[in-house]
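> forwarded from #structure-qc
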């Protein structure tokens, strides 16, 4: 019984992998044109479909939106009862129907054509109504469903989903979409925590320890003690970062016989300290701290001026890892 169940499950995998491989090998200029249409779209991508195709269309809209291409799922039945107003002439329609004949989806075509909205269709029939009226037809090229009855959408729905993923990932790459961009769209949950940027966690303004190069060391120590980071940024007269003083620098200075009462920040600081950009991922800042065995980083702007200070504990408390 156990082996029979596993054999049947593996058969589903084998069929779908074979069908997806055929789809991969059949990709052509139609896919390129679909990407070009979406890139040129000044509005949003409206995805639509009914039944299983509707669920796939919703997932594709979600993936596009989270990776730099604004998208919205429109249920075709609701569209025919007023929701069609969500589409305007700047949009592009991505319609999914295995047969290409789903009445609810086909019924949208005349209204979408009136708006002169480009239509990208995903179907498994080249001669279908939806394929005929689409500006671009993406052919699924599925020969066999994984369903033993060859009825339930399985290979075809997986193929539709994969085409959507391929569109989204190619668009992501062409748009130069970054981890930071992704983080902006995922602020909640564990994923959002992992993608938080330094600017969200650093200490700035009056809470940030900063002294000038010529600040007497007794005043430097007061600044470090009052701010509680075990470090302070050191700036020149133009406000640019030139160094950092940490508790370790203080100890090394004492061991060398230095006299705080006769010294300034310039005498004690470590020049050219490790820094971080405010929009870098906090996870990257933590890696840098671990690499150089330090506990704080100064966040600097494009001109080398300190914006804030971030401590290892800030990152850990935020649950970034």
């Amino acid at each position: 019984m156990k082996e029979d169940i596993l054999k049947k499950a593996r058969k589903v995998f084998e069929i779908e992998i074979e069908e997806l491989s055929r789809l991969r090998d059949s990709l052509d200029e139609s896919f390129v044109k679909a990407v070009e249409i979406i890139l040129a779209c000044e509005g949003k991508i409206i995805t639509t479909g009914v039944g299983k195709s509707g669920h796939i269309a919703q997932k594709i809209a979600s993936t596009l939106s989270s990776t730099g291409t604004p998208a919205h799922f429109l249920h075709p039945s609701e569209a025919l009862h007023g929701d069609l107003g969500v589409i305007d002439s700047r949009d592009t329609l991505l319609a999914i129907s295995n047969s290409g004949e789903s009445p609810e989806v086909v019924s949208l075509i005349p209204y979408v054509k009136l708006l002169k909205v480009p239509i990208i269709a995903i179907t498994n029939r080249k001669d279908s109504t939806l394929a005929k009226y689409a500006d671009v037809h993406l052919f699924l090229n599925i020969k066999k469903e994984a369903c033993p009855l060859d009825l339930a959408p399985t290979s075809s729905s997986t193929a539709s989903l994969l085409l959507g993923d391929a569109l989204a990932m190619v668009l992501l790459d062409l748009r130069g979409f970054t981890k930071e961009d992704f983080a902006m769209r995922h602020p909640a949950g564990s994923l959002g925590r992992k993608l938080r940027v330094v600017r969200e966690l650093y200490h700035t303004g009056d809470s940030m320890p900063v002294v000038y190069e010529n600040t007497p060391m007794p005043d430097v120590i007061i600044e470090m003690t009052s701010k509680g980071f075990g470090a302070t940024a050191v700036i020149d007269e133009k406000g640019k970062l030139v160094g950092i003083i940490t508790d370790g620098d203080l100890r090394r200075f004492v061991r060398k016989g230095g006299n705080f009462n006769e010294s300034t920040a310039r005498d004690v600081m470590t020049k050219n300290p490790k820094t971080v950009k405010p929009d870098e991922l906090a996870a990257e800042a933590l890696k840098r701290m671990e690499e150089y065995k330090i506990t704080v980083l100064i966040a600097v702007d494009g001109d080398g001026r300190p914006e804030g200070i971030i401590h290892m504990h800030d990152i850990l408390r935020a649950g970034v890892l």
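QC bot note: The chain has two domains: 2-176, 198-317. The radius of gyration is 29 Å.
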